[in-house]
Every structure is written in structure tokens, then in C-alpha cells.
Amino acid sequence: MDDTILEMRGITKTFPGVTALEDVSLAVRRGEIHAICGENGAGKSTLMKVLSGVHPSGSYDGEILFDGKPMQFRGIRDSEANGIVIIHQELALVPYLSIAENLFLGNERRGRGGLIDWNKANAEAAELLASVGLHENPVTPVIQLGVGKQQLVEIAKALSKKVRLLILDEPTAALNDVDSAHLLGLLRQLKEQGITCIMISHKLNEITAIADSTTVIRDGRTVETLDMRADDVNQQRIIRGMVGRDIESFYPDRVSSPGEEVLRIEDWSVRHPTQERMVVEGVSVSVRAGEVVGIAGLMGAGRTELAMSVFGRSYGRDISGKLFVHGREVNARTVAEAIDNGIAYVTEDRKRYGLNLIDDVRRNVSAAALDRLARLGWVNGNEEIKVAEASRKEMNIRTPSVMAVVGKLSGGNQQKVVLSKWLFTDPDVLILDEPTRGIDVGAKYEIYTIINRLVAAGKAVIVISSELPELLGMCDRIYTLAAGRITGEKPVGEATQESLMELMTKDKELVG
Amino acid sequence: MTSIKTPSTERPTPPDSTPAVALHSGTSDLRALVLNNLRQSGIYVALVVIVALFAVLTDGVLLSPGNITNIVLQYSYILVLAIGMVILIIGGHIDLSVGSVVALTGAVSAVLVIQQGHPWWIGVVAALVVGVAVGAWHGFWVAYAGIPAFIVTLAGMLLFRGLTLQVLDNISLSPFPAEYQKVAAGFLNGLLGGQGFDAFTLLIGALAVAGYAVSGFRTRLARIRYQQPVESFPLFVARVVLVGAVLMYFAWQLAHARGLPIVLIILAVLVLVYGLLTRRTVFGRQVYAIGGNLSAAALSGVKVRTVNFWMFVNMGFLAAVAGVIYSSRSNGAQPAAGNMFELDAIAAAFIGGAAVTGGVGTVVGAMVGGLIMAVMSNGMQLMGIDQSTQSVVKGLVLLVAVAFDVYNKRRAGTAR
Fold first, then answer.
1. Which fold has domain A4-243?
2. Above 0.90 for ipTM, yes or no?
3. A404 touches chain B (CB under 8 A)
4. Contact state of A354 with B288 under an 8 Å Cβ cutoff
5. Domains of chain B with CATH codes
């Protein structure tokens, strides 16, 4: 048997109300590239946070063996001292500092008298950069580098810490094809130098190209570890592991009877707000009254970007394309105009974009349509309470009172408050972005029931989700989105988890 | 009070409201009420304690009719500034320039009225126009150019102080005509006569108490009709009686001094108007929404820029009102007028429970915070404590007040 460098045994990690990891085990051989894949929210990142000490020892159950020795990391410094370095999806570089300053941040090269020896630091930095194939001057500010080069700086930083186990979270998610290829080549090179690598990725073609073994995680549990050298392991095999879950009767029944078209998006393109690349390109989507349309896409596919750019141009720049509501072209340049045109967008991140957490249920429910409760600018506070009470009953929001602070409610109840807020704007079409993220099973069912009720009342609903069973259980039609483009559209009857996942992981070249 | 026993629960409630019945049983437990509102009631308690402390330390001079009148006259302009400031702080901004704006508006008024001999009201109108213009200037840079308020108003502090010096040509102007002086130093009295006291002041006091009681009762009825929790009836009566007694005592003392100060009427109107504006209007609610979660407010269709702009225009207007009051009180305009006023106004807002992170605060709270500062300053002056010690004490009080607030919030956050 091969030499095992890392073994995680029976890892269980719970957050209030949610079990993120349940009895997860992972074994990584010395000097291999080990891929971890699974749907969004499967627990991949949580597992890596446990490994790197972000979730300190004691906050989870189970044990970690590194080089055969049990480890108890209290923080990221502990794990780094042992040569375990994690590179997060959102790069953690300080933009206005130079490459060398970033490389040695918190680990400065000191000379005499405790002062930083910049000559030494820059010379060492140059060596490190050469070893990752980055030809840049170490004094260049990081902000002048593209994302691909920044990624290389992160890896050089890891090397400076004498890394033995390198963990990369979605390393190529933000990279173009050339940069991705370069990065994967570098990983192979590091492997030859004896550095073990764990890579979280959604891109199955990359995994099959580079990984020696792959562990699939689903719903916080290890499904299987595949040896990529075996003959029968291909992308389809991995997909089966990622999605194999029974849907059964978890989704409430609904009789579908779509009516007229309510919203049509035509040839919609959006550029990233700060970078040059396009985030959404030539997307066309339509939804009819009484219809639930799904948009399936993995992280970084441009789902939220599409929705927010449609919703009053809340994201991106250089937005082009046409928007029709009830067959009439509308030009909604602000959120207020989008709301006036009957569009509602329920965010995937309710705490950041959906709620005023320090305020009460009542005022959150009325926040998007306060004008409906006001005459000449004066709010009728009593009517407002009545509206909030009605929402509380209708949505079954579990709160002691509508005067309770929203921040203290559970995730599911917070989500119901956000939904109430948007329903009070009386929209024709609701765009629900990950409507059941981070809420428990019971509340999920309630949300599904609410969606069904809305559709029955003639609303059009777009559900954005990366949980395929949810889309298959709820939708009439499903679009798949990959790298900012629509890669497929299927009536729910013809879609399977496998076929959707295949479309969602389709790469750009294959689409064109 | 035991004879009045009609708690709101015993009213017949419609049958469909059963799930919420437990909520309407009225919070009759005084202890629970105080604990639940520790943040809010904390500052009232602090004000009472500080008043009592200095009343004892000054052998009652603090609460003498003459001194109460003095406190009103001396600190009214800080309270006016604190109204605008707390609204900005709720919205997540700050204004460091208000002291300079007080000086500038006073100077413009003085030049027009004293130097050029225009009637007094021209000075007042010009000051208000200048204040609004300054506010629009700040509002433009913060709301439309996206520069943080701290920087914009720091620049404004220097800018408008400099303009004040230019307008005044580096000299002080005085005195104002008698009509102008009346704004801050005038009294309404003798309108109804009285023996040794001013009946008119007492009448206004009584009307205020009646207004408080009636509006409180109407709010209560409306809330019961909408099946909202209300305090028990005896507690309601106790609250009205207590507030009424304090108000009447205050009016009584004023009536035995020089009558009703005009500036108190101005202040009362402003507090009433802005209290309603912040709590009851769409604009006020959007200010809280922006301060509470800017992104969520923007994604809810709040026109963030417009609201930010008008917040600053409003601050400019109120700074001009304070400028008129101050110039009237000091009977002239000085190049150094209004120095450090911004800090007193900011302190009043924070002592009054506003949060540094925005989204929290009330106009009434800021008024109480301002009164705490006022009573402390006045009390220490009466005791002959020197300026340096006063400054130390005020600084510590500000720090302790905000620390207490932060501690409270953390406790509330972990409690559930």
C-alpha cells in the first residue's frame, strides 16, 4: 500500500442548526494530487477549514493524522508550522503591497536589530517566483498583476512556508484557459518535487487530467474515493458519485399549467465590474406565468451575476441585451424601476444583501415597498404591523412577535422574512437565488410549498440553484449555465441529474 | 391605582386572533419592561442620576428657576445640531464641519444686518440659505462623488472656517438689533399675567402635558385595535403622570424666572418635527435602512444617493438654525464662533444611544444625551470646577456611555 501522508478520520462538524460534516474520512497518499469534488454546500470547504485549523481543534469531532502523528491545530499558524498551507478561493493578498511584501507577510525576513532586510527578502522572493514560473519584479505591487499571476504569488507564498501539503480551493475558478493550463502544469511540477496537493474543483475535465485520486463528498459525507488510474473512472463516473441521491417525495406536488410569457431576457451580456472578462455572455431566458424555471450552474458560472444585472443593473458594467416584461421591452436601470416593472430578486446571501439584521421583522417586510404603506411620505405604522402580521401567519414565520429583531431568527425564518418582503412588492416574476441555502430540511419544504402557492396564483418564478434534486423536484423547465453561457435547456421530464451536471461542467470550447 | 384594573387582554378579541393572544397580555411587570429597554431607559436613568447628583452638589442651585432657564439658553444650539447629527450618524455618516458652519452662517447674518443695516429677518433667511447651500455641497460630494463623509466634512471644517474669516475680514461684529437678539435671549411672558409667575408659561406646559397624554392614549388605542402588545393600563397612567409631573415642574420653574424662552419653543418644535420625521416618514425609515445595511437597502429600491444628499442638506439647515441662535445669543459674530461644537453634537448623539456602525439612534435619545452633557457642564461650572477638569470628566462620560452601549449589545447578542 502507498505511503499515506494525511488521514482524517470520522470528522463531524456541526454549526448551530446544521450538520456540515458527518463522519467524513479522507486519506491522501504522499506526493499525489488528490481532488475533492461535490456540489456547492456539500462540505468540501468546511472539511478543508477543519484540516487547516480555521475551525480549531475541539470545535469538531474526529481525528487528523499527519505523517502518522495525531494533530490538534488551534489555528492556521499551527497547521502552517507543520507544512499544511491552504490557498482560498478568494485570494488573500494585500493589493497595494509588493509581491515580496505579500510573500513574507507575517513571516518577514529580518536582519540586524529586528529590522526587515529588504535585499534578502527581494532576493529570496525572486527565487520563489522563478520556481513557480512567474517572471515579475518582486517589488511590483500585487494589484498590477492579473488573477492568474496572483494565484502564482499565493503558491510561491506557500512554498516560502516550506509547504508539504498544499490545499487549493477552486484554484482555476477565476482563471482563463491559458492561466489554468499553466497552473495545472505547475501543480504537476510541484508533485515531482514531492509536494502533496489537495485540490477542490468543479471542473471535471481538469480533475480527470491531473488528479491521481478523487474523493467525492455529498451532503457532508464521504461518498467514495476513486483511483483515477483505474480504467473505468471518467467524468460520468464522478458525476454519478456527486449527484446520486434520491429525490422521492421531498417536493410537494404541483399541477403545472403555464400561461403567457411574463419575462424574457434576450442576448444578455455583462462584464465583470473590475476585470476585463465577461461574466455573462449572450444569455437568453424566458419564463411564463405559473411556471417555475430553473437555472442550474456551479459556483462561478455567472448565475447570481445574471440575476443581479437583470434586477436594476445591480451588478457589472457594459450590460447589453433586451428585457421584456409581458412582451413589452423595459429598461430597468435602477432597482426601483425593476420593482416597478414587477421584478423581484431574492438574494442568495440574505444576511448581506437581503435583510437589515438589526431591525425588526415588521420593518424588514415593508422595506422594499414602503410607498404602498405611505401617504404623502408618512408611513402608516399600524397598517405596516397588519401587513407584517399577515405575512407572519401566511409564511408561518416563527417569531415571538413582528417586533422581534430579524438577526435573532433562524435561517429558515429569515428567508421567509426576505420572501415576505418581496411578495409585498406584488411582483409578477420572482427570481429566487439559492432560496434554500443554509436552512434546515423542514424549512426547505415550507419554502417549496410557498413557491408552489405563488405559481398557482399566476406568478412566474425563476429558481437559481446548484442543488440538482431541488431543481428537478421544483421546476417545469431547466436551463444550464456554465462560464456565463447557457449550455442547455430541458423540460424537467427529459432532464436527469447526470445530464444536467454534464451540461453544467461543459467547458467553453465545447459550447462554441 | 388598584381601582383601575382593565388590562387590555380582557377586551373581547376577535376569534381569529387566537395564536397571538399571549402577546397581548400587556407587559405589566415593571422589572421586565425596564430590563427589556435597558438601552433606552439607561440614558434616562443616567440623566436623572446626574441631575440629582449635581442638584445635591450645588445645594439645589442647579434646579433653581434662573439656572434652568440658563441651561436652556446655553445649550439649545448644541441640541439643534445634535438633531441633524444623530440623523447623519443613523445613516452611517458624520459631519465634522458643523462648528464652522455655525460660524459662517452667523457671520453672513451679521454682515447683512450689522454692517449693511438690513432688517433682522433678512439675516435669518440669508443664514438659512447659506446653511442649505453648504449642506448641498457636502451632500454632493458624499452622495454623488462617493467621498466618505469624514473626509468631505473635515475639508468643510477648514473650508468654511476660512470663509468665515474672509466674510468677517478677521474682525468681530456686534451688536445685533434688539429683534435679532430676541431669538436666543427673548421670552414669551406676561401674555396672561400672574402673581410672581408667568401664567402663559404654565398654560403652555399644561398643553404640552395634555398633548402627550392624548397622543399616548390614541397610540395605545390604535395598537390595541391592531392587536399589538401594550403596557398595562396602570403602567400607562403612571408613565403619563410621571412625564407630566416633570414637564409641569420644568414649566413652573421657568414661570418663576423669566417666562418661556423663545429658543425653547424653537427647540421643542424641531424635536417634535424631527422625531416624527425619523420614525414616521418614508425618508426617515430609509435613513435607518441605509445605516443598518447599505447593500440590502440599495437592493430594496431605496434611492441611496438621494437620501444621503438630503441628510446633509438637512444638517446644513439645522447648522444654520444653530448659527442664528448662537449669533443671537452672543449678540454678534466672531471668527472663532462655534469651535468644537461638532464634537459636542457628536457626543450627544452617541451618549444618546446612536451606534457607531449606523442604523441605530433616536432624536429623543440625542436630546437626552445632549442634556446629560449640558447638566454636567453647567453643574461643574456652578461648582467652580476649572475648564480642564470639566473636559476630562466629559471625555470619560462619553467613553463610558459608548462602552456601556457596546457591552449591552454584545450581551444581548449572546443571550439568545
1. Rossmann fold (3.40.50)
2. no
3. no
4. no
5. 29-189+258-381 (1.10.3470)
